Structures are given as C-alpha cells and as structure tokens.
Structure prediction request, 347 residues.
Amino acid sequence: MQMRTIEWKDNAIRIIDQTKLPASCVYLTIRDLETLGKAIKLLQVRGAPALGAAAGLGVYLGLKDSKVHTYAQLSRDAEKIIRYIGSSRPTAYNLFWGLARIRAVIKKNRSMAIPEIKKEILEEARHIIEEDQRSCRSIGAYGASLITRNDAILTVCNAGMLATIDYGTALGVFYSAHAQGKRFKVFACETRPLLQGARLTTWELKKHGIDVTLLCDSMAAYLMRQGKIKKVITGADRIARNADAANKIGTYSLAVLSHYHKIPFYVAAPVSTFDPHIATGKEIIIEERDPEEVTSLYFKKPVAAAGVKVCNPAFDVTPHELITAIITDKGIIRPPFGRGITKVLTS
Ligand code: MRU
Prediction:
C-alpha cells in the first residue's frame, strides 16, 4: 500500500483527511497556516510522528512566501509560527521536537541569504519525513522479534501508517512480522471517543491483509480473562526519562489489566517521542478536548443528557512499572529503563 499520510506536494502540504476515513480516503491540500492549525486540532492529521512532520512542513509553509529581508525579521516570524503550531495540541512530543529542529536549522544558517535559509527549512522538514520512514521500519524489525506464530495482540488507537508517514510504530511491528510470514491475530480497541481504532486501525490492517477483530474498549478485560490476548502493543505520544509513557486515553487501563492478567505490555515509539526535558510522566500535559466528542460527534442523536458535565482527556500516562519493554528505532529497551533511555537519546 503506497500511501503517505503527509507530504510536501505541489508547493503545499498534502494530508490524508483522517476524519473522512474509513468511508472515503481523500486528500486535503493545505496552503496556509490557519488550515494547518485547524487540521491538527480536528485530527485531520494526527498521531505523534505525523505531527512532527506537520510541524516541520508547517514552519516552511508559513515562511515560504514571506517578503522579509533580514535574518532578524525571518527569525521573529518563524518564532510566531512555531508558537502558533505549538499551541495546536499539547501532548505529542514529536510536534515540539519537529519545531525545535526547524528552529535550530534557522539559527545554524543565520549567515545565509533568506531564500537559502528557506530552502534549508524545507530540507530539514523532508529529513524529518525520511527519518520517520526509516525509524518506523526499524521499530517494525525490532518488534517483529517479539511476535510469535499464532500470536494474539491487542492494540489501541491508531499507531499505524496514518499516525506516521507511511508505516507505523505499533502497527509497523505487525507489518514487519506479517512480511516475515508470521500469522497472528490483532484485536483493535475502538478507542472512544474519537474511534481511531475502529475507523483507522481496522481500515489499515484490513488493507494489509492482517487478521483484525474490533472490540469496544470495555471488552478488553473479558478477552484477557479468557486467555485470548497474549500481548499488548501500543504507540506513545510522549515518554519521560523514567519511561512513563503518555498515549491515547484508555492505554493506562490496558496496562493495568495486562499486569493483572500477566500479559506483556509493550510500547512502540521512535526516539523522537522521548522528551529528554521531563523526568516523569507527571510533567506531561494532557489535552482536554471538546465535550461534544463524547456526547454526540459520532452518533446520529446525542447519547447524553443535554448540558451534562463531560470529562474528555485525550491521553493518559502509563507508569513505567507497568511497561514490559519499549520498542524503539534504536532497539528494545527493558527495565530498568533509565540507562537504556539515556543511551538511545545520546547515541
Ligand atoms: O489523538 P491522536 O489520534 O493523535 O492520538 C494518537 C495516539 O495516541 C497514538 O497512539 C500515538 O500518537 C502514537 S502514533 C505512532
């Protein structure tokens, strides 16, 4: 399946509009920053690594037609754009990592002419994209070693090609194992309230010919109790230095359930998802989203009493002690995590 979730095409950002899936796979061409900001907030483009790419391309998009003549003006405009993109969603570290990379490139090339600096910005955004393609395949290769024949693996949200450039992290592990000829079952949690598991993961896995079964989030414990789940593999949005890992809301519950049922719980993520600035998951900002996502968005009629108070955190943090291992693009890190994380962050 040769598809790119996000790319630079015809002098604009082109994304697959994920709000339209699985009914239709349509592309959206983004020519201005406001449309990009909206696309990120509405989850037309989503998933930590894809947001890293959106950040890189977004700064270029915002600067490419600017008429400024001095480095000081360019740098000031770039900072404004970086602040704007950085205010779209708070949790995925890749978004901020992508912005920081572009900022560093602007600073490093400060003595160049303005058009040259702009070219370097686009180059860097393209590097972010190419690196993600390589990272995901590397995560896939490391993770595939954990998959056995006739395995049964639970996942949540969408950590697939739609969350990256074209392959995926948790789902990249499945693609890699599948390509090695291993046959296994995947169970996809629907992922309330925005249904990334039902809408996106089942769509992707079916396209790849991978055996996938959809379940409501509340059914996981029942299946685990029956021995139907052998391991859990999820993605991550931000990982602290102690391996506490933020991911889609519901991930923590799965980790607790895995612990109780003695099922290995793996997190798959590139090194770009590790936030070196935070010691523990307590420092991770959890996005709170619109109540309507819970009460009515995917329903024909509202499913809750009008005006009811709603709690809609988009992510939760799984404490490191519930994580069996982290599958990264630089290898599999096992507890105690501290040393392994420092090693991948500094190598
Ligand atoms: O709100 P979303 O859909 O952007 O949340 C995405 C996730 O939680 C993914 O699991 C995570 O970003 C990893 S994607 C490889």
Summary: The mean pLDDT is 98. Residues 43, 46-49, 92, 157, 159, 163-164, 169, 196, 235-237, 247-248, 314 surround MRU (CB under 6 Å). The first strand starts at residue 6 and ends at 9. DSSP finds eleven helices and 13 strands in the chain.
